[in-house]
Write a structure and sequence with these properties.
Layout lengths: L15 H15 L18 E8 L5 E2 L2 E2 H14 L3 E13 L4 H14 L6 E10 L7 E11 L14 E4 L5 H10 L16 H9 L6 E4 L4 H13 L2 E5 L7 H10 L12 E5 L4 H11 L4 E7 L6 E4 L5 E3 L13
Parallel strand pairs: 4-5, 9-12
Antiparallel strand pairs: 1-6, 2-3, 4-6, 7-10, 7-11, 8-10, 9-11, 12-13
Length: about 325
């Protein structure tokens, strides 16, 4: 009997259909020695570990530069990388709406299988639930990640006056990309999401002897949210050079059209790093091997209130505040 073209309730019912569905869609793509038909995976870890969990619900599911599957892998492994933890193991659970097309599900899972390769991690267990049509919007994904910490105490609480701040590439791409897709904007040059796994570049930084005080991927709330959280955590100010912060021209255009600031828009493959001043040049060199747009954008300074200060090329200054409200719901 041929396989149906859409997800049916029986694919989450625990019987033969579910067994065949899980093996055909997931086991075949995520195959590794740890992934077995058991209720739990048996793993081995050495030393201090990091653990993170996340859920993904994006509209549209597919966008220029990625889809909900690449978001799930990148988002989870990036959270580990930001505390200098090498991604090792992931769990992956799907909530699927009855009637969701098999062809779209297979594209998502294929993307996940490809996205996880550069991290060296593997998916070791998961779960699938199918809900009646109308009870969920196509597909939601939940992941948990576990990694081995290679450099302890990488944290916003470790910022020090004199630290130099760098960004790994141009900002605001993911938010602008999703917004353009939702509004069906026709742009001279298509904006691609920056969605990507960050472990390769972080691994290279650590291997080069860089000892970051803090790292953070600038997802929801963008650069502005990360830097405000950092200032609060370490009770410091930051002096940022507006002209040094890289923003693509197409992203600027979308921001002007909708009245947004690029500092507030989400990223999914861009991170901010704070390093001792003597390591700034080496850090920039490593970052630019991966993305030429990487830049030094400012420094940590003493001052009150504990907020980032944006300095314009004309000498004016203003606080870069937290984003207010939900700019773009269901961004990741």
């Amino acid at each position: 009997m041929s396989r149906p073209q859409q997800v049916q309730l029986s694919h989450g019912g625990g019987g033969r259909e579910m067994n065949e569905f899980i093996h055909e869609i997931f086991f075949r793509r995520f195959e590794n020695p740890f992934l077995k038909a058991e209720d739990a995976a048996t793993l081995t870890l050495n030393g201090q570990v990091a653990m993170t969990t996340d859920s993904f619900t994006v509209e549209p599911l597919f966008f220029a530069g990625g889809n909900i599957g690449s978001l799930a892998i990148a988002g989870t492994t990036n959270d580990l990388a930001m505390v200098a933890a090498q991604p090792k193991y992931l769990t992956c659970s799907f909530i699927l709406e009855e009637g969701f097309a098999f062809s779209e599900l297979e594209k998502i899972v294929d993307t996940m299988a490809q996205e996880i390769v550069p991290t060296g991690a593997v998916i070791v267990c998961g779960d699938t639930k199918v809900v009646p049509k109308g009870c969920a919007d196509k597909v939601f994904i939940n992941t948990t990640g576990v990694g081995e910490i290679l450099l302890p105490n990488v944290s916003a609480s470790q910022l020090q006056v004199g630290d130099v701040l760098l960004v790994s590439r141009d900002i605001g791409r993911h938010g602008a990309c999703v917004l353009a897709a939702r509004e069906s904007l026709r742009l001279e040059s298509e904006i691609e999401s920056d969605c990507a796994t960050l472990w390769p570049v972080v691994n290279q930084l650590l291997s080069s002897g860089i000892t970051p005080h803090a790292m953070r991927d600038a997802t929801r709330g963008g650069l502005a949210a990360v830097l405000n959280e950092w200032c609060q955590s370490s009770n410091v100010q930051m002096r940022l050079q507006e002209q040094a912060i890289p923003v693509d021209a197409a992203v600027k255009g979308v921001c002007e059209l909708f009245g947004f600031e690029p500092y507030d828009l989400a990223n999914e493959g861009t991170f901010i790093i704070a390093v001792p001043a003597e390591q700034a040049t080496m850090t920039l060199d490593v970052l630019q091997r991966f993305q030429p747009q990487a830049a030094i954008i400012g420094e940590v300074v003493a001052g009150s209130p504990a907020k980032p200060v944006l300095c314009s090329p004309w000498g004016s200054k203003r606080y870069l505040d937290f984003p207010v409200g939900e700019l773009l719901p269901r961004i990741c």
